[in-house]
Automatic annotation (TrEMBL):
<comment type="similarity">
    <text>Belongs to the CAND family.</text>
</comment>
<keyword id="KW-0833">Ubl conjugation pathway</keyword>
<feature type="region of interest" description="Disordered">
    <location>
        <begin position="290"/>
        <end position="322"/>
    </location>
</feature>
<keyword id="KW-0677">Repeat</keyword>
<dbReference type="InterPro" id="IPR011989">
    <property type="entry name" value="ARM-like"/>
</dbReference>
<dbReference type="InterPro" id="IPR016024">
    <property type="entry name" value="ARM-type_fold"/>
</dbReference>
<feature type="compositionally biased region" description="Acidic residues">
    <location>
        <begin position="294"/>
        <end position="322"/>
    </location>
</feature>
<dbReference type="InterPro" id="IPR013932">
    <property type="entry name" value="TATA-bd_TIP120"/>
</dbReference>
<feature type="domain" description="TATA-binding protein interacting (TIP20)">
    <location>
        <begin position="1021"/>
        <end position="1183"/>
    </location>
</feature>
<protein>
    <submittedName>
        <fullName>Cullin-associated NEDD8-dissociated protein 2</fullName>
    </submittedName>
</protein>
<dbReference type="InterPro" id="IPR039852">
    <property type="entry name" value="CAND1/CAND2"/>
</dbReference>
<dbReference type="Pfam" id="PF08623">
    <property type="entry name" value="TIP120"/>
</dbReference>
<dbReference type="GO" id="GO:0010265">
    <property type="term" value="P:SCF complex assembly"/>
</dbReference>
<dbReference type="Pfam" id="PF25782">
    <property type="entry name" value="TPR_CAND1"/>
</dbReference>
Amino acid sequence: MATSDLMSELQKDSIQLDEDSERKVVKMLLRLLEDKNGEVQNLAVKCLGPLVSKVKEYQVETIVDTLCANMRSDKEQLRDIAGIGLKTVLSELPPAATGSGLAINVCRKITGQLTSAIAQQEDVALQLEALDILSDMLSRLGAPLGIFHASLLHCLLPQLSSPRLAVRKRAVGALGHLAAACSTDLFVELADHLLDRLPGPLAPASPTAVRTLIQCLGSVGRQAGHRLGAHLDRLVPLVAEFCNLDDDELRESCLQAFEAFLRRCPKEMSPHVPRVTSLCLQFMKHDPNYNHDSDEDEEQMETSDSELSETESEDEYSDDDDMSWKVRRAAAKCLTALIASRPDLLPDFHCTLAPVLIRRFRDREENVKADIFGAYIMLLRQTRPPKGWLEAVEEPTRTGSNRHMLRTQVPLVIKALQRQLKDRSVRARQGCFSLLSELAAALPGSLAEHMPVLVSGIVFSLADRSSSSTIRMDALAFLQGLLGTEPAGAFHPHLPTFLPPVLACVADPFYKIAAEALLVLQELVRAMWPLERPRMLDPEPYVGEMSMAILARLRATDLDQEVKERAISCMGHLVGHLGDRLGDDLDPTLLLFLERLRNEITRLPAVKALTLVARSPLQLDLQPILAEALPILASFLRKNQRALRLATLAALDALAQSQGLSLPQPAVRTVLAELPALVSESDMHVAQLAVDFLATVTQAQPTSLTEVSGPVLTELLKLLRSPLLPAGVLAATEGFLQALVGTRPPCMDYTELISLLTAPVYDQTGDGGMGLHKQVFHSLARCVAALSAACPQEAARTASRLVCDAKSPHSSTGVKVLAFLSLAEVGQMAGPGPQRELKTVLLDALGSPSEDVRAAASYALGRVGAGNLPDFLPFLMAQIGAEPRRQYLLLQALREALGAAQPDSLKPYAEAVWALLFQRCEDAEEGTRSVVAECIGKLVLVNPPFLLPRFRKQLATGQPHTRSTVITSVKFLISDQPHPIDALLKSYVGEFMESLRDPDLNVRRATLAFFNSAVHNKPSLVRDLLGHILPLLYQETKVRRDLIREVEMGPFKHTVDDGLDVRKAAFECMYSLLESCLGQLDICEFLNHVEDGLKDHYDIRMLTFIMLARLATLCPAPVLQRVDRLIEPLRATCTAKVKAGSVKQEFEKQDELKRSAMRAVAALLTIPEVGKSPIMADFSAQIRSNPELATLFESIQDSAPAPSTDSMELS
């Protein structure tokens, strides 16, 4: 009892022991370890764990010394207890990564004793215990024990020849952990030892010895496979030959070794893939004790009656000594590793592996079948296109062909799984559902024609109450997925079959099944009776029973929270989609929603359900609940729960749109009173929804707004002055303002509203420049334009007033900027008279001393011109030719005109504009050339088939500046949305990328900028050309000595690298490729260039540190293989010192570099095996021992636990 009480006390964080108490407790516990009562001994051992963290280091060492002495005792029980005690102490020691030296000191203390215990041949029990402890120790603290590695290796290698199997097994495990942590020289010694001792397959050797050596290679492969790459050419042929020996255990070990090699060294295994594949295919069928029926017999069996098949399955062959299933399982796992590590070989896998895997779905051993399913699931996952691709536009040709091959396999898969779906084994059916779910996700719509088989399998599992609930949940999850991927028509004939079992599951007492079934029912309602299409199936036979089942759950109050929420959501969908068929059930359901709104636990799902009902096009009558529901919703707007506020605003907007005038006015006023507080900069999303709702209410019930329009407008005008105003909030504001003046009679006078809007600018005293942020002027101008559009009769007068303000010498800079930006939007609506005057005013403003006024006038000139091309465009072109000093501003105006005008209206002027722009391509100013390039890009979009081919001639014959401008203009043809020009552009991309061979640096830099934009916004343009482009790209990452020159600056010499910008652009492209084209990259080749970049200029190092962090997350295996080489440049950066007397910027740059390098180190440490690398362990110790680096590292770990997932915008 006393020991038990001590255990309870030690587990409390509050306990503090003084030195004397520590000594007494330790002494007493060590004595209790020798107690005659086994239960007391067990409790004493359990106390050691928490005690280790409570006592000082020397007491821990006392405990360890005593335990080691006890391990050598003659008493077997004491030896066992001491072994358990040592394992307990080791597991509780703080890891070396925390900076504590205790673990290292303790391990160093016991390593020598363990080594001598292992070397003793006479006491096997002691040997086994010592090997166990050593394995534990090496797995946790391998690297810090570096000084013992050589002695441990020489102690463990002889144990591989031990006559005892248990000793050999434990030695194999310990050697695996040692291989991960030891130095390169010791690793080579270990690998050579294993290879030298492996005899040729024809040489006489003991099967036991060979098996042990192969198992050891497998263990080393799993723990430190990334270091085996250099030895694989010797190793793989040897291991492959041993597969031919008639020894199933040996074959299993060989295949497990291959699996480890494939996962850890995919690049080095490339030459051996065909051989490994053929071995896996051979041994996946390896079943010597069982004669599978021929295909003809199997066909007959499938069509035979189910009772017969059940009898057959009961009489399956069973043999306890049969080891062949382990070989088949190892082969299947090896194939999974092969498919996962080589996505580039998918077309071959579909031809060679898929048919064999499908045939082996019938394997008689459950474990093997699960792994064969796993291999085929991996093939399906690799075939799925990455998320975010627009299927028709973005799907690369290779993925398309893979999916075509997969489509041909679907009937074979269904045929192979038909019997399995009704197998008595739950695990087999779960495997079927997992596989079919992946298949449906990889090929949506492909299972529609096989629905009878699938529905029959689902119903079989839903009705199976004899086994665990898991299979029913899996069947429901699969059905839900099917409803999302297959066309609704495929389910119509089967609805009477599978709806009753689903409804039975809704009523199931186990909450997880009920929740899953409600989700299925919700998806079923959405899929069978969609709102956006006419009903193809009469809901009458089903709606009553569905409503009854859900209402039973909705009314019950003693349910799990998840079931309550799902029932509310499901009922919301049922009412929204089939409310017109509910009849007398509708009003009670609405009252139930009202009841759930009042309950704090269910109010959020109830609000969302109400939104669904309100948005329904069925125009249901919600009068029974509106008067009570609106005040409740109004109270939610005051709650601190953001999700509830957002959902409530969405619900209110939907109610205002659907119910309109029938909303009770007193209740609406209650809601509106809460809104001014929500129109605030503190939460822009809430503000946007609040303004959207206001606009809806203004149109539906303008009279309700009289009391709140003042306070709301005050808050809205404050919001418009925010420089961070998102586009969504601005669009909502425009809609609200248009609603205010658009009602009959208007809620607010147009002139008064314009005055309120422009007051912040017009009321500024003096002319101290703009006063407000530039973005605010754009926002206000958009609002002025929105009001003019809502009152067209006022547009001409507004335009005239703005023209007067713009040309008045007394107007401030802010007033002029606002006037021009507003005219850019309003000018197109003004008549020809104001437009003629406007032309003169805008032209004069281009000479204004204020840069902001000039930019606003240039923008306005282009936007107004776009609405009146015949008058403005020839005038604008004439001015560009006549006014070289204003050329930049006039070209900007042309750019706006080309962007805003309709393509058809531009066609008559295309030739003249084209000629004008190409005359400006050789301008000395890079800014001017950049605007010209954008203009050319916008002009090409007017008539791509006619204008795009002309680029060839310009690239072949033009001057360097012209070539660079042409390539830059191509960048403006790429958008992140599908565009008709995409197909044409794709055919030219290869030619444009040839400009990477151009001798001019600026042309190459422009080509890289175009390539980066394509990779970032539309990867499908370049994905198929990467084999040709990547060598050119990698060439640009190299430092070219001929571009480095020295410049004398007074007494100092300064080095200038003209190639830096091009290299930086190339590395930016490499980063973008990681995001969108990872599958097409040879990561090992890619890493070579990243490695070079780690030693380059400051800007490039910053980029490569980010890339390294990203690579550590995306593809850890290749990074792990070269981690020792990657550490050195990181260490050099972290330990570099800035010269004394350097300027402040140098210190800041170095700090930023260190921080970025540390982020890369933190990302590398997320790869589990990296910590075992001796060089990384040494660097980690160096970081911990340096206070500055340790603080920096801790701050990075605290602020960004997953630094490598950050994305970087480089387009």
